[in-house]
Amino acid sequence: MLKEKMEQLGIRQALEELGYGYDEIFGGLSRELMEVYASYSWQKITCMKEGIRSHYVIHAVPQEELLKDHPWEEWFFQDNKPHHHVLFTTKQDCCDKEIFIPKDDKEHPAKICGRDWYYYEDENSLPYLAQK
Q: Contact 75/18 with Cβ under 8 angstroms?
């Protein structure tokens, strides 16, 4: 399911190359959450911002119809520190930052471009839905 999808897409290996342990982050997900995250679009996208380890970010984007309740998430290392951003289409109490991703942006998944996002830096690398 999720593990197989991530292996096929090279996401599992990419996470581990960055310094994340797949089993530490995704190993404890319930069957239901594995199905939810398996429905996401997973991408490894080049990012040339200074300090980004290996020059890429891992993105997990839910299907459009789920974006109202499910965030887009990204994992990366910058300046040797792990980062997990959790981004929503509407302002949430947990969000302390806002960003507009331009339509022509090449460092983010195309389906999230051209809109505002509200987000926070999660101290925990576990997927957002696993923390609820």
A: yes
Residue 128 Cα to chain centre, angstroms: 9
C-beta of residue 40 within 8 angstroms of C-beta of residue 65? no
In the numeric block, the tokens 């999660």 are attached to: 122
Query: What's the pLDDT tens digit per position in 44-93?
Result: 999 999 999 999 999 999 999 998 889 999 999 999 999 999 999 999 99
Residues paired with 61 in a beta bridge:
41
Q: Any idea which residue has 């040797």 for tokens?
A: 80
Reference 56, options 116, 114, 26, 11; nearest CA is: 11
Is a pLDDT exceeding 90 seen at residue 100? yes
Count other C-beta atoms under 10 Å from residue 15's C-beta.
Answer: 22
CA 29 vs CA 3, 26, 34: distances in Å: 11, 6, 6
Q: Which two tokens stand for residue 38?
A: 């398996």
Q: Which two tokens stand for residue 18?
A: 């960055």
96 burial type by CB count under 10 A (0-12 exposed, 13-18 middle, 19+ buried)? exposed
The CA distance from 118 to 99, in Å, is 7
Q: Which stretch of DSSP H or E encloses residue 43?
A: strand 41-46
